[in-house]
User: What shape does this take?
Amino acid sequence: NAGVTQTPKFQVLKTGQSMTLQCAQDMNHNSMYWYRQDPGMGLRLIYYSASEGTTDKGEVPNGYNVSRLNKREFSLRLESAAPSQTSVYFCASSEGQGFSVGNQPQHFGDGTRLSIL
Amino acid sequence: DAKTTQPTSMDCAEGRAANLPCNHSTISGNEYVYWYRQIHSQGPQYIIHGLKNNETNEMASLIITEDRKSSTLILPHATLRDTAVYYCIVTYSSASKIIFGSGTRLSIRP
Assistant: This one.
């Protein structure tokens, strides 16, 4: 019963390096999300995909790109990592599609802890 | 989306009911109230949601006032494993995303 799987769980990068965070869900959900959480703060939405083939910006999209590879997978890419992107990154999915997702609960992965030196 | 206000922190004795309040005075008629929690270092976990009526599931109860301007999440018999940050979120059914606030840090004391 995997749910939402994120890889890797931990990563250390040097400033300027690039990296892709992977997320996959096995619940046949339509919508997927990427959040970041800084110490002592709540989650902030980076990007989301309301359905396969679509992506949209959230609150804090700068410095990130995303790809909805297929219905199962939603990746987050840091093209040139900066220390300000040190954070815990969470991926989530929900059943709802497009503009009817508001009443559908989101299911979260266990996070990727990313440190940028 | 309507803004929510929650206390920064609360505590509760183990075995007692934990009552977590949330104010959402600008809520619209078709906005839902959601509760999530985040146990240390884990991803957030969905607890319960409702529109107008009170709701109960195996984890908790959600009490929404008649004017819908506030709600209370009730954990009927709190255990140490309920220590977490609890997020109250209000969102439209037509929304394509939800926004998390700062939440309430609930501590359960033995």
